[in-house]
Amino acid sequence: MMNFSLASLLVLLLCYAASTTDGQIVIDPWTTQLSNAPYPQQYVLVGETIVFIWPEGEEQNVWIYPSRVCFDDTDRRFVGSVPGVNYTFTEGDGSPTGNTLLFTSDVDDNCVNGGMRLRVTVYSDTDTLPPFVTPPTSSPPVSSPTVDVTISPSSSPTDSVVTEETAAPTEVPTTVSATDAPTETPVAPTLPPVAPTLAPTTTPPVATPMPTSVPTELAATEDPTFALTVVPTTTTATKNITLRGLEMELFGINQFGRTTQESWMTTTASYSTLYVQQQFGGIVSMFETIYTVTDSTIIVTQAPGKRQVRRNLQQQDISGDSVKITYTQTLIYDTSDPAITSNFLAEDPFDTEENRVAYVNYLRNNANNLPLSRVVGSTAVTVASPGAPSVSPPTPEPTMAPFLPPSPTQNGNDDNESFLSLPAIIGIACGGGALLILFIIYCLYCRSGGLGKNSKKDAKSTSTPPMTVSVNRDDEVSTLHDLKHMNGHGGDQSIATVDYDYSKAYGGGDNSVSSAGGTLGDRTNNFSAIDPSHAAATGATLGPFDDDASFENHYRAPGSNVKEEVLHVFAPPGKLGVVIDTPDNGAPIVHAVKETSAIYGRVRVGDKLVAVDDEDCRTMTAVKVSKLISRKSANPSRKLTIVRTTTVD
């Protein structure tokens, strides 16, 4: 029995040495797995080497993640990025009971979705052999080891092994001369053959027709025959669950572009992973999570009517309160506790105020993103209302009616939004009407020149209650102030925003061309190519824009000498970033120009827009002019004809 144990151990050692040839483990090829299945786990000793090989030209690398989690790169170590890179395990990598390391690649998402996850358990005690499996043999086992084979078969059995080599063969046969007498008698044969093996065993006994003995009858007992185990042995399968329609709101942020979204997804996934590992590390294993943003809504708070707010809007600096994020979360984990569900793991990291404060601090310190560094709070995770669209619908076309916050039914969130009470609606309407009357009186005084500095100061200090505007990420419309009816009748809005924010894609303002089409000459207030007194015929009347010095220049005291110039500005394709206004049914004028606009510096605030590609637009509203310019956004170039009024000293 002792000989059998020693022989078995010798065979196992030989098999183990064969599986790690020259102390090396070769992973070939080290590349992505279509099934996302990880590589088989390996078991090594300290001092052994692992080699990674992949096809030439393929971008891959090798990293060691001591955390054994794809999303946790704490203390990770770089091995190499060249095919054939190797790593030799040190004493710090192993332990007597085995220490597991994760080898992976950080190219794209190969660790999470490419199956490039190789776990290697390293042992530092040479007496502790890693588990391995020996290949089965085709012949049955024998009671003792086999004898060593001879170097070459002999003509007859001998007691000793022949170790001397025979003579080398010659190129020609050896000739022996014939003799007259025969040679001596042949040499006697060697020892007789070795005795044969043991005689075969006896034939198997013939089966009896019935059992040799009847079963023993035992009385039933109340207690089981064998004692129960302490803990039932259970095996669990790794869960892979995707939750859709989750929502979270971040406060203190007014931007959520593509870069910010990617930073939020990565940082939030890292926070959730660390939270689960710290709180449920003993009952949840193999935890990984992926966040994917499906929609976002920026909630903006404005206070129109004030000088500073209008100037900020003119520069397109819209401030916001919060952003509501709708996302999908994929969770991969293993647990035997039925209380740990996917919904629990998705909501618990943000369930309490303490957890949310920790999340906000983690987001601000680790996101490496300017908008996310301004986050001041967050809500708990909620599930979106059933039937809510995955993408927010476009906002309706602006009308001349006073702006009211969108009703809850427009977004399909009847349960999560609150309606305005009737007194609140009446108060808002009365306040808007009063402000509209004050604005009209102010315009009349500006035209007549009878408004003093004190009156201007009082008019500018008038403000309206702040209103909350919900702007979806796909909408880029600036509402400069409350819309008003024209001459008591409804119509298109007087202010519209020509699409913007695409100037960088077309090389900035260098691609636009400005040329002077002519000068109308010097004039006094009683002569103009677009005279306010001929507004009914030409539609070219400027309204009051006292918030900007360039506007105030148009309303100097009577007697100032001014001249008008006709300029042609050639704009590149794409969005322009220009705000158009048509005050008092007059000709369209430029109300604001974004600094990143392609025509910034060539078009000024107060310029009158009289034609687009030689199409007369003096009688068009701001909305129609914006639509006209947008329809021509795909043209290689657009010709904007403007009239600029300057003061002659």
Shape by Cα distribution: elongated
Give the end-to-end Cα distance, rounded to a whole number of Å: 120 Å
**SSE-based structural type:** alpha+beta
Strand content: 15-25%
Number of DSSP strand runs: 22
What ranges have pLDDT less than 50 throughout 5 or more consecutive residues?
Answer: 1-19, 303-319, 385-396, 398-418, 451-494, 500-557
Count of helices?
Answer: 11
The largest sheet is:
6 strands, antiparallel
In terms of quaternary structure, the protein is: single chain
What share of residues is helical? Answer: 10-25%
Keywords: Membrane, Signal, Transmembrane, Transmembrane helix
Protein name: PDZ domain-containing protein
InterPro entries: PDZ (IPR001478)
Organism: Nitzschia inconspicua
Structure notes:
- The structure is a single chain.
- This protein has eleven helices and 22 strands.
- Helix 3 packs across helix 6 (353-366).
- The strands form five sheets. Strands 9, 10, 11, 12, 13 and 14 form a six-stranded antiparallel beta sheet that branches.
- It is elongated, with a radius of gyration of 44 Å.
- It has helices at 2-19, 110-113, 258-280, 307-314, 342-347, 353-366, 422-448, 453-461, 535-538, 549-552, 622-631; strands spanning 24-27, 42-45, 49-52, 62-65, 77-80, 85-88, 99-104, 117-123, 239-251, 284-302, 322-335, 377-378, 382-383, 467-472, 495-498, 513-523, 562-571, 578-581, 589-593, 608-612, 615-616, 638-647.
- Among the domains are: 2-123, Immunoglobulin-like (Sandwich); 239-383; 495-647, Roll (Pdz3 Domain), CATH 2.30.42.
- Helix content is 20%, strand content 22%.
- The protein is α+β, with helices and mostly antiparallel strands.
- InterPro entries: PDZ (IPR001478).
- Residues 132-143 have a biased composition (Pro residues).
- Residues 1-23 form the signal peptide.
- Residues 132-193 are annotated as: Disordered.
- Residues 574-646 form the PDZ domain.
